[in-house]
Amino acid sequence: MISRSRRLTALLCALTLSGAAALTACSSDTAAGGAKITLGFSAWPGWFPWQVAQEKGLFQKNGVNVDLKYFDSYTDSINALSTGAIDGNSQTLGDTVASVSGGAKLSIVLVNDNSTGNDKVIAREGITSVADLKGKKVAVEQGAVDHYLLLLALQQAKLTEKDITLVPMVTDQAAAAFLSGQVDAVAAFAPFTSKALERTNSKAIATSAEFPGAIPDHLVLGEKVTKEHPKEVQAIVNTWFETLAWIKDNKDAAIDIMAKRGGVSVAEYRSYDSGTSIFTKQQNIDAFTPGVTPQHLNFQAGKIADFMVSVGLTAARPQVDNLFDDTFIKAVP
């Protein structure tokens, strides 16, 4: 099964190695003349519609030449964007804020979805609440979005990370370790939640549904790409909504495509529906509008920036004021 690491720290590391200048330089070359825009995506239900767009010829229909690149490792897609090997990527808000902290110039142009249950903290039999994790072994990918979910859940239960034994592992290995009984709990995302829940009498004791808006997923492009190739970016955003309409009218065929891309059965894929809330155009507009509630991206970005400082991922609070570009959403027909 495929892997979606969803790391907050990967892009910080990559930028340290390659320098932020590589992002704009290489992205400009890739998209030169509007001939081609290379987009990355990886294993997450909210991003699989891109596969539908490709297979049904919807990019071409909207007059844009897209090289859609699938990454088995989400971390690799983050690194590819940071070095300019691709022009855009589907990634979480947390990873994007991390890249901004490292010096990248990026623009979020589209909200794909919010995680509304497909990120979970799953525990063995006998552990019935997050409070019961005190003193227990919990596997999670450090710096990843499910690490953030775990910390939110612990805080809600009046615990901290010091109250548990954190076992750092990449997400697929963490789910396997939990299934084999090596740890007491795991924080993971779909599709690895399905594997973890195969452990007898295991259950989710916290999910992203309890923290509305905390885990939004986006289409992120190099800032230079949005400035130099707005026509192509607009066509890609338009294609996203046309794809959602096609999926609505052809749900069975769409699920077949997306389940195959995800390496899961159709039945498993259908089980993810309620845990990933795909955003409409209006929900996008509302999210991009500045505000002080969890539905607003600027609010969530601020919370994530504070989280990064509190856990030592960055010394200075990232500046996210210019991260959100609602130009293309507002121009969708």
UniProtKB/TrEMBL annotation:
Key words, A-Z: Signal, Transport
SUPFAM superfamilies named among the record's database cross-references: Periplasmic binding protein-like II (SSF53850)
One Pfam family it belongs to: NMT1_2
A Gene Ontology cellular-component term: membrane
Gene3D superfamilies to which the protein is assigned, alphabetical: Periplasmic binding protein-like II
Signal peptide interval: 1-31
Keyword set includes Hydrolase: no
A molecular function (GO) term: ATPase-coupled transmembrane transporter activity
Compartment list: Periplasm
Family, similarity comment: Belongs to the bacterial solute-binding protein SsuA/TauA family.
NCBIfam families: SsuA_fam
Function according to Swiss-Prot or TrEMBL: Part of a binding-protein-dependent transport system for aliphatic sulfonates. Putative binding protein.
Protein name as catalogued: Putative aliphatic sulfonates-binding protein
